[in-house]
Write a structure and sequence with these properties.
With 263 residues, this protein is mainly α. It contains 12 helices and no strands.
């Protein structure tokens, strides 16, 4: 009989073990409530980490918008160097230096001398260049140019001294240069010949042919018209002269060479 007591105790133990199961069932809601309260009280629960991922995904979705806006950033990046380049204001260029009285006088003297040189009045040009160099020696730039032209002028004067004086010889020299193709030298010879004999029709005609070769249409037509006025037979020669090929399409050439064709 005493040995049965343990069986009761075991039965009692079994009966004692049952309530904990019920307690466990009852405490489950308490644990859930504790979890809920813990979720409310804790600042960074593990379950709320999921929205962080969602927010990362949500942030990834608007990237196309940022990608679409990227060209604007690129343009801004391209414009920034230009803007940075334009930002520093360039200093204004200094005003042109006004020439002094001596410089202005030297420039005027040079212009006068150069006009004589261009006209072929080399003797007058030589004297003007010499006077400029003596009177305005302090203006180095102008006097240097004057010395250059003075050397050319003196060379031309020496050449003139070696040239023939009579118009026929000058004309013959001009024809030789024209046939050689040195049209500048030929023009000079014919002009010299006409200075000594302005009524030389052949010299006018040869000068017209030379100027036509040089492309000086207007002065070539003037010389040709003068040559035909002095010697009308030259009109027939001009009609087939290859030297006037450049002038054949000019209405003035037709008027001079083919006067009967005009109504």
């Amino acid at each position: 009989m005493r040995k049965a007591a343990p069986s009761k105790a075991s039965a009692g133990s079994k009966s004692q073990q049952r309530p904990p199961v019920k307690k466990a069932q009852r405490t489950a809601p308490a644990k859930k409530a504790a979890k809920k309260t813990a979720g409310k009280g804790r600042p960074a629960p593990s379950k709320k980490a999921a929205p962080v991922k969602k927010s990362a995904g949500a942030a990834a979705k608007p990237r196309p918008k940022h990608a679409a806006a990227a060209p604007a950033k690129g343009k801004a990046a391209k414009q920034t160097p230009a803007a940075a380049h334009k930002a520093p204001a360039r200093p204004a260029p200094p005003p042109p230096k006004q020439p002094s009285r001596d410089e202005a006088a030297a420039l005027k003297a040079f212009e006068r001398a150069h006009k004589e040189f261009a006209r072929g009045n080399f003797a007058a040009a030589r004297e003007s260049f010499r006077s400029l160099i003596e009177q305005h020696a302090g203006v180095s730039e102008v006097t240097a140019r004057a010395r250059t032209y003075l050397a050319i002028t003196e060379a031309r004067l020496r050449t003139e001294a070696a040239l023939p004086r009579d118009p026929d010889t000058l004309y013959d020299r001009g024809v030789i240069e024209l046939n050689r193709g040195d049209f500048v030298a030929a023009q000079e010879m014919f002009e010299r010949a006409l200075k000594r004999d302005p009524s030389a029709a052949d010299a006018h005609y040869a000068l017209a042919a030379t100027r036509a070769r040089l492309g000086a249409v207007e002065t070539a037509l003037q010389a040709l018209e003068r040559a035909i006025e002095l010697k009308p037979v030259l009109r027939v020669r001009a009609q087939s002269d290859s030297d006037f090929a450049l002038l054949r399409n000019e209405p003035e050439f037709e008027r001079i060479v083919y006067p009967g064709l005009r109504s």
